[in-house]
Amino acid sequence: MTAALETRGLAKRFGGLVATRDVSFTLEQGARHALIGPNGAGKTTFVNLLTGVLPASAGRVLLAGEDVTSLSAEARVRRGLVRTFQINQLFGDLTPLETLALAIDEQLGLGGRWSHAVGGDAVVAEITAVAERFGLADVLDSRTDTLPYGKQRLLEIAVAFACKPKVLLLDEPAAGVPEAERRDILDAIAALPVEVSVLLIEHDMDLVFSFARRISVLVDGALLVEGEPEVIAADPRVRAVYLGGNDHG
Ligand SMILES: Nc1ncnc2c1ncn2[C@@H]1O[C@H](COP(=O)(O)OP(=O)(O)OP(=O)(O)O)[C@@H](O)[C@H]1O
């Protein structure tokens, strides 16, 4: 089966610094895959190369077998490669209803006419379904900046989901979320439909190990090892990296 997303020999240099080193990576269809690595390993850069935020210095990105390396970030979203953001980038003064309406209108090609379309049956039905999926139904009319942080993070995932992703990149979805609200994030991620292939970039190992069926470890811009969670947990090289005893160069 064609991979949902693939990179071949992907590289990124910032002047003399190599942030991504010859990364050949495969995200299978329906994947629940996590990308981990210590601070500065190059995770953010890799995601920016996948999404087209940064141009690659070398290598290729394939989405469902099609080369998207030269496509803009927007064109990749239209083809179903969607990410959530690490930093809260929602409009605080809009409600989740308005925010989701914007995303859905954009998806339906109604961009710019959202205030009319909020009343449209199809859009309302879609908003309701997405809001229920992500536990936002009871806060749809509250200003986003008044919501608990966990709900704001859920809204970020909901917005990405409303863009109808084939591949969803979750960039630290639980970062900054208080312990009491983390379960909701975990449950929402666990309940994503199987047709959506998911790559999770995350520091929180509890979340990684509860979610992922496959884990890739990025160190110094390169893939160090990849495998099933138990294999990764037991790998001495991974332990060395995380315990700071990095003796492999
Ligand atoms: N725009 C840039 N210009 C120059 N160097 C950069 C740029 N972006 C990232 N880097 C460097 O590339 C390396 C990888 O950074 P990156 O942010 O991708 O790592 P990361 O694994 O996401 O780290 P963290 O987990 O701390 O966010 C770092 O050495 C960083 O300083």
TrEMBL record:
<dbReference type="InterPro" id="IPR027417">
    <property type="entry name" value="P-loop_NTPase"/>
</dbReference>
<keyword id="KW-0547">Nucleotide-binding</keyword>
<dbReference type="Pfam" id="PF12399">
    <property type="entry name" value="BCA_ABC_TP_C"/>
</dbReference>
<feature type="domain" description="ABC transporter">
    <location>
        <begin position="5"/>
        <end position="245"/>
    </location>
</feature>
<dbReference type="GO" id="GO:0005524">
    <property type="term" value="F:ATP binding"/>
</dbReference>
<dbReference type="GO" id="GO:0016887">
    <property type="term" value="F:ATP hydrolysis activity"/>
</dbReference>
<dbReference type="InterPro" id="IPR032823">
    <property type="entry name" value="BCA_ABC_TP_C"/>
</dbReference>
<dbReference type="InterPro" id="IPR051120">
    <property type="entry name" value="ABC_AA/LPS_Transport"/>
</dbReference>
<dbReference type="GO" id="GO:0005886">
    <property type="term" value="C:plasma membrane"/>
</dbReference>
<keyword id="KW-0067">ATP-binding</keyword>
<dbReference type="InterPro" id="IPR003439">
    <property type="entry name" value="ABC_transporter-like_ATP-bd"/>
</dbReference>
<dbReference type="Pfam" id="PF00005">
    <property type="entry name" value="ABC_tran"/>
</dbReference>
<keyword id="KW-0813">Transport</keyword>
<protein>
    <submittedName>
        <fullName>Amino acid/amide ABC transporter ATP-binding protein 1, HAAT family</fullName>
    </submittedName>
</protein>
<dbReference type="InterPro" id="IPR003593">
    <property type="entry name" value="AAA+_ATPase"/>
</dbReference>
